[in-house]
Write a structure and sequence with these properties.
By secondary structure, the protein is mainly alpha-helical. The chain has 3 helices and no strands. The relative contact order is 0.03.
């Protein structure tokens, strides 16, 4: 055993020292990199889901806007047609009243309520 110990001491004394590298820090950095990649993937997936949800919301709101715009146009057309028909009736009524100026002057043809 003395002989083995002496050989070991001699080997330690003669053997040149070289730089030691810490592998544990590298492993931690790789783990951190892996965690960062996982976090990035999760964020990308969340962004895709948010984008899809936003596109669906935009499509829904566009459809609702188009529908309400069409309804407003229909209401406008109905009101416009009613206004035109009222104007035509008023013109026809006034034309009938002014055919006989004496009746219009004396008040015939008017209805009193």
């Amino acid at each position: 055993m003395q002989n083995t110990r002496a050989k070991l001491m001699k080997y330690i004394a003669v053997h040149p020292a070289h730089k030691q590298n810490k592998q544990h820090d590298i492993v931690l950095q790789l783990d951190e990199l892996k965690q960062m990649r996982n976090i990035l993937k999760q964020q990308q997936q969340q962004a895709e889901q948010d984008r899809a949800r936003l596109e669906m919301q935009i499509a829904k709101m566009t459809k609702e806007h188009n529908r309400s715009q069409a309804e407003a146009n229909e209401r406008f057309q109905k009101i416009s047609e009613e206004c035109k028909s009222m104007q035509q009736r008023a013109q026809a009524k006034s034309a009938n009243e002014y055919k006989n100026p004496f009746k219009a002057f004396l008040g015939f043809g008017r209805q009193y309520g």
